[in-house]
Design goal:
The complex is a heterodimer of chains A (576) and B (168). Helix content of chain A is 37%, strand content 16%. With 576 residues, chain A is of the alpha/beta class. In chain A, the strands form 4 sheets. A 6-stranded parallel beta sheet of chain A has the order 3-2-4-5-7-6, with helices on both faces. In chain A, helix 3 packs across helix 18 and helix 11 packs parallel to helix 14. The longest helix of chain A is centred in the N-terminal third of the chain and has 15 residues. Chain B contains 4 helices and 8 strands. In chain B, the strands form 2 sheets. Chain B has a 4-stranded antiparallel beta sheet, with helices on one face. Chain B has a 4-stranded antiparallel beta sheet with strand order 6-7-5-8. The chains are: A alpha/beta (576), B alpha+beta (168). The interface between A and B is medium-sized, with 19 and 24 residues.
Chain lengths: 576, 168
């Protein structure tokens, strides 16, 4: 069948089984948008800013595991997507971004709305393509989806010049693709797996440390099974929350800069560490020189470059987390009685002692609303079953600490790049993917203003997202660091001249609510969640100076946590 | 330690900038980098000379392998290998004494004089980097007009070969 380039592009998306395109039209993309208009299989979601399109596609991808698709025009359309592409890249999210380009004969002439898209996006994509021949368009699209979704996933950009979208070619979408230069390995080496098991069986003070890779590989059940077989203490990174249910008795909570005391102490004191789909990020390890000084590390990761990058590893296992864990579990079933149960029992006693610190405890106040309480109340109202997106900062950490996730793909946040403005558009993608589920965006007064325009998109498509704005009139995390490390010089971390968020939500056609009295939090939240088919923006005026505890300061190790103020003395005595 | 890494990559526009971008983004050294198509027109071969600790070299090879355009690579320094560099030098050759001296040096180093004008000679020298360095040092009494070096081309000795699987 002979088709125009623009129609080929749209047919590729149809044949790939794509439900939604998140996009924004413009000059170079007009042929493509015409092709989108002339079909009804794929729904196009018109955002209000291209950054919103990328985050929405990203949120869709994180919640479903399928590739998110973005369509934008050339020039500013592309540059506006860069933050969203980099966000997806840092968290290994599958995404295909189709960018229109000026016509081939104009490339390099500084044409109107021309940028070097391939050049600008190169450092923050898994791969990118510039289509130079309409006959290669379909194959390029197939490659784009294959690369984006296989191996360690990531965003792929396909740059399509306008003239290519007008030319015609025979349409044939390849069923499979084989690239000699890209053959990701998913099956772990059996000898390495066996070596890893040997080390696990010798452990006296083990810890299982899992990350976002477990979620991406859909390895949550396999991980949970592993933990149930071994009965080893387990912790998770910010990105891995929900892979193992938070209620699992072996789960110690999140680790890292704002992780629990018991998780971080166990990481420091352990003799064997099993790292699964986690990349030893600096927010997790603290000061590398002080990181887990006495442990042998077994690391499972699909990306060989993630193994041994920051921390030396005893046994590297390259492979898909799920495939490797399934093999491991099978082998462990017959070997599990070799574990030194007495030693592990002793280790649990030490950990239980650490747990008594209750490092997430906080003091309620009857005058001001505590943000932690709001998250706990949310957990209660939504029965722990909501999709939670967040922006970046204090509210993100409180959401991670107090909303205990029982399932993977429910916690959707920008962990690697730390992109403020992510939460609302990401929630749109999630709500479109799961129209009947409860989707909550936990945000703050600074973050929400970074992609606020998407409130308009939410109205157009009737997305009943619940926005919980933890409003402390500060960039809370910046303020917290300035309080701790800059002698309380609050340089530009306050939000002056905030809008009236209630009126703002109303002017966008939504429902706005405000709560300032701690005694009314429950009622207001209940009321907000009872409005199932409306977007409700709840402006929660919280304690302005609340800090996120516990905390590992820059340059400190896991054993040097900063607990909440009252516990400081006790901790210092213990360390002395 | 100094390493010579040979890389086979798809002969696509932009492949070179992906490699160069990787090195600058991650702060790795590039001492020299040469690239040209191979006998198989769909492939380019690149020789990168770099240096770093073992851990850094491991990361460099892993990160290079991760680039979608990279088909295969080998750290040649891990085995027996050969490295050759080409240098072109334009020198002042104003009088007969200078011309004789230059001719003698070129002969000793087994180079060639590939262009002659009234006042200049252009010399071609091929060899290991050490030999090329030594030749330049030997020319210290001669006035250099221009020096251009290719950077190292590397190949492993014996039966070892860096070859791509056939295009499917």
């Amino acid at each position: 069948m002979i088709l125009k380039g623009a129609d080929i592009l749209v047919r590729c998306l149809q044949d790939e089984g794509i439900e939604y395109i998140f996009g924004y039209p413009g000059g170079a993309a007009l042929h493509i948008y015409d092709a989108v208009y002339r079909q009804d299989k794929i729904k196009h979601i018109l955002v209000r800013h291209e950054q919103g399109a990328t985050h929405a596609a990203d949120g869709y991808a994180r919640a479903t595991g399928k590739a998110g698709v973005v369509l934008v025009t050339s020039g500013p359309g592309v540059t506006n997507t860069v933050t969203g592409i980099a966000t997806a890249f840092m968290d290994s999210i599958p995404m295909v971004v189709i960018t229109a380009q000026v016509s081939s004969h104009l490339i390099g002439d500084d044409a109107f709305q021309e940028v070097d898209t391939v050049g600008i996006t190169r450092p923050c994509v898994k791969h990118n393509f510039l289509v130079k021949d309409v006959n290669q368009l379909a194959e390029t699209m197939k490659k784009a989806f294959y690369v984006a979704t296989s191996g360690r996933p990531g965003p792929v950009v396909v740059d399509v010049p306008k003239d290519i979208t007008a030319q015609t070619a025979e349409y044939k979408y390849p069923k499979t693709i084989n690239m000699r230069s890209y053959q990701p390995r998913t099956k772990g080496h059996i000898k390495q797996i066996e070596r890893g098991i040997e080390i696990l069986l010798q452990a006296k003070k083990p810890i299982i440390y899992s990350g976002g890779g477990v979620v991406i590989a859909n390895a949550g059940p396999a991980l949970t099974q592993l933990v149930d077989i071994l009965k080893f203490p387990s912790t998770s990174t910010l990105m891995g929350l929900g892979a193992i249910p938070a209620s699992n008795p072996c789960f110690l909570g999140m680790l890292g800069m704002h992780g629990t005391y018991e998780s971080n102490m166990a990481m420091y004191e352990c003799d064997v560490m099993l790292a699964i789909g986690a990349r030893f990020d600096d927010r997790v390890t603290g000061e590398l020189a002080k990181f887990s000084p006495n442990s042998k590390i077994v690391q499972i990761d699909i990306d060989p470059a993630s193994i041994g990058k920051n921390v030396a590893v005893e046994v590297p296992i390259v492979g898909d987390c799920n495939e490797v864990l399934l093999v491991m579990n099978e082998q462990l079933k017959t070997k599990v009685d070799k574990i030194d149960r007495a030693a592990v029992e002793q280790w649990w006693e030490i950990i239980n002692q650490w747990k008594t610190k209750d490092s997430l405890a906080y003091d309620l106040d009857d005058k001001v609303i505590k943000p932690q309480y709001v998250v706990q109340k949310l957990l209660e109202i939504t029965k722990g079953d909501a999709y939670i997106t967040s922006d970046v900062g204090q509210h993100q950490m409180w959401a991670a600490q107090y909303y205990t996730f029982e399932q993977p793909r429910r916690w959707i946040n920008s962990g690697g790049l730390g992109t403020m403005g992510f939460g609302l558009p990401a929630a749109m993608g999630v709500q479109l993917a799961f129209p009947h589920e409860v989707v909550v965006c936990i945000t703050g007064d600074a973050s929400i203003q970074m992609c606020l325009q998407e409130l308009s998109t939410c109205l157009q498509y009737g997305l009943p997202i619940k926005i919980i704005n933890l409003n402390n009139q500060y960039m809370g995390m910046v303020r917290q660091w300035q309080e701790f490390f800059y002698d309380r010089r609050y340089s530009h971390s306050y939000m002056d001249a905030l809008p009236d968020f209630v009126k703002l939500a109303e002017s966008y056609g939504h429902i706005g609510m405000r709560v300032e009295d701690p005694g009314q939090v429950d009622d207001v939240l209940e009321a907000a969640f009872s409005m199932k088919d409306r977007l409700v923006f709840v402006d929660v005026i919280t304690d302005r100076t609340e800090n996120v505890y516990p905390m590992i300061a820059a340059g400190k190790g896991h054993n040097e946590m900063h607990l909440k103020p009252g516990d400081q003395d006790a901790q210092e005595r213990e360390l002395a | 330690m100094r390493r010579i890494i040979a890389v086979l990559l798809e002969n696509e526009s932009g492949a070179l900038s992906r490699v160069a971008g990787l090195f600058s983004a991650r702060g790795y050294n590039i001492e020299s980098l040469t690239v040209a198509p191979t006998d198989d027109q769909s492939l380019s071969r690149m020789t990168i000379v770099t240096s770093g600790t073992d851990a850094i070299i491991e990361q460099i090879t892993k990160q290079l392998n991760k680039l979608i355009d990279v088909v295969k690579l080998r750290d040649l320094t891990e085995g027996r290998h050969l490295g050759r560099e080409l240098m072109l030098v334009k020198v002042c050759a104003a009088n007969i004494d200078q011309k004789d001296e230059i001719k003698r040096l070129v002969d000793i180093f087994r180079g060639h004089i590939i262009d002659v004008t009234e006042s200049t000679y252009t010399l071609e020298m091929t060899g290991s980097s050490e030999k090329v360095d030594a030749f330049l040092e030997a020319l210290s009494q001669i006035e250099l007009v221009e020096v251009v070096r290719s950077g190292i081309l590397g190949i492993s000795r014996g039966k070892n070969a860096l070859k791509a699987p056939p295009l499917s």
